[in-house]
Design brief:
The chain is of the alpha+beta class and about 475 residues long. The chain folds into four domains: about 70 residues, no CATH class; about 100 residues, Beta-Lactamase (2-Layer Sandwich); about 120 residues, no CATH class; about 160 residues, Heat Shock Protein 90, CATH 3.30.565. It is built from 13 helices and twelve strands. The strands form three sheets. The protein has a five-stranded antiparallel β-sheet with strand order 2-1-5-4-3, with helices on both faces. A hairpin with a 4-residue loop joins strand 1 and strand 2. Helix 6 runs antiparallel to helix 8. The protein is rod-shaped, with a radius of gyration of 51 Å.
């Protein structure tokens, strides 16, 4: 059976006042009473359902108002509705908020790009979620977790926005406190790591300084002790040569004026091989002179290397320091056990005198050249150490000490100057030489020390220091 329809008489228009009794009466005339009762029951059911829905929505709104910060805006962002929670947290009255946009609570914390992304999202009819820092009327700041829901029309264009926010200020404060704590702990950890590194550096310096001081005193003492007798020998060889030359001349005159010597003298001349002595004695004296000169050079090199009499900076000939170091290491440069000697190629540029700590800089040369000698231990011939010097700029000089031994891998180069790091076998190296060398060059002389090593290209240590160094 078709559902009954209530007909409004045609003579009524929407502007007229409808006499619903007449309408109902007319309906009664057209439909049986049972159909009418069914229609009334359906209307009552729909009304009850509608009231139930309104009640539920009211309850939801009440619950939402109690828990959340709610606002409604038009499509331009103008506030049309705020709940009490919004007013309470923002410290603004409803009258102060209605008709304004949300810039009234802008804290200035977020960037322009942040809000540009926000508006691009909701204008496209999409829901936006995020956390925003706002500022209340009294200047206090608070954080809210925000969800903005666009209401769209039939064409999909937003015509108003519903913003639901929850106060997360306490959580953000805890997060900020945690971040600060983590930052503080990280800073403390960094300070401890730096302190440990500094301690290792200091320990290395103390060890090396003690070694340098002891070695310097030992070298200076030996040089001083050797210098006296060597000077005596060196000075007297000159006079001995003159005396022997005079005696040989006298012997020559005797042979010339008394060619017929007594039998006893003649026998002695033959037994002593006087002719051979006369020829060989000057050679012996020349050899002694050469040896004495060599010892004197070594003593001078030892004294130049140690320079214990110079506690501060002084003007120094860099080439003299390198040569003194090479002279001390001469025995290690010689070939042994069937190995070819190491060839040292000097490519010295024209350098001015450099203001530096001479003994410490010599120790740098000693450490680097010693490492080069060790690196060439198993290197087949030719074994070469090349030393270059040059004045790079008006205010600095460069010293390059390179060898043609095995290259150093990149991962090893990163740790090369760390205290106690060594690639040498156990018991052969302390791992302090390059660390101390770097400290002397960079900390004491405000220069740079770097290692350059490409595959199959050997190793090159480059030192750069200022010509004029401040104490």
């Amino acid at each position: 059976m078709d559902e009954p329809q209530i007909h409004i008489p045609a003579q009524f228009t929407k502007e007229d006042d409808i006499n619903w009794a007449d309408v109902i009466g007319a309906t009664f005339c057209e439909y049986p009473l049972q159909s009418y009762n069914m229609a009334v029951a359906d209307c009552e059911g729909m009304s009850a359902k509608l009231q139930e829905t309104v009640h539920e929505l009211s309850e939801i709104k009440f619950a939402l108002d109690q828990a959340a910060i709610v606002a409604m805006t038009d499509r331009k962002g103008i506030i049309r509705y705020v709940n009490d929670t919004f007013c309470n947290i923002s410290k603004y009255s409803r009258e102060e908020l209605i008709g304004k946009d949300h810039r009234i609570i802008n804290s200035g914390y977020h960037s322009q790009e942040f809000f540009q992304e926000f508006w691009n999202t909701i204008k496209a009819g999409k829901i936006w979620k995020g956390e925003i820092k706002n500022k209340a009327k009294d200047g206090s700041e608070y954080w809210v977790s925000t969800t903005v829901v666009p209401f769209v029309n039939e064409s999909g264009k937003p015509y108003q926005y519903l913003a639901i926010r929850f106060d997360i200020t306490d959580r953000k404060r805890i997060e900020e406190a945690l971040i600060k704590s983590q930052l503080k702990f990280q800073q403390q950890a960094d300070r401890l790591a730096n302190a440990l590194q500094e301690l290792k550096h200091t320990q290395a310096q103390l060890v090396q300084t003690e070694k340098l001081a002891t070695m310097g005193q030992l070298v200076a003492g030996i040089a001083h002790e050797i210098n006296n007798p060597v000077s005596f020998i060196h000075g007297n060889i000159i006079h001995a040569k003159e005396y022997i030359r005079d005696l040989l001349y006298l012997l020559y005159l005797y042979q010339k004026n008394y060619p017929d010597a007594e039998p006893e003298i003649q026998t002695t001349i033959e037994e002593l091989e006087v002719d051979f002595l006369i020829a060989d004695l000057p050679k012996i004296l020349d050899s002694m002179q050469l040896g004495a000169n060599r010892i004197r050079d070594i003593v001078i090199s030892l004294r130049n290397f140690s320079r214990t009499d110079e506690s501060g900076m002084s003007l120094v000939d860099i080439h003299q320091g390198i040569d003194s170091t090479l002279l001390i290491l001469q025995s290690y440069l010689k070939g042994s056990a069937g190995k070819q000697a190491i060839t040292v190629i000097k490519e010295y540029g024209k350098l001015p005198l450099v203001k530096c700590y001479a003994s410490q800089l010599n120790q740098v040369f000693m450490n680097i050249i010693s490492n080069a000698i060790d690196a060439l231990e198993n290197q087949p011939a030719p074994r070469i150490i090349r030393i270059k010097t040059a004045q790079l700029y008006p205010d600095s000089v460069m010293i390059s000490i390179a060898d043609n031994g095995p290259s150093i891998p990149k991962e090893v180069q990163q740790n090369l100057f760390e205290p106690f790091f060594t690639t040498k076998p156990m018991g052969k190296g302390t791992g302090l030489g390059l660390s101390i060398a770097q400290h002397i060059v960079e900390e004491k002389h405000h220069g740079h020390l770097k290692c350059i090593s490409e595959p199959n290209q050997g190793v090159d240590f480059v030192i750069e220091i200022p010509i004029e160094n401040g104490e």
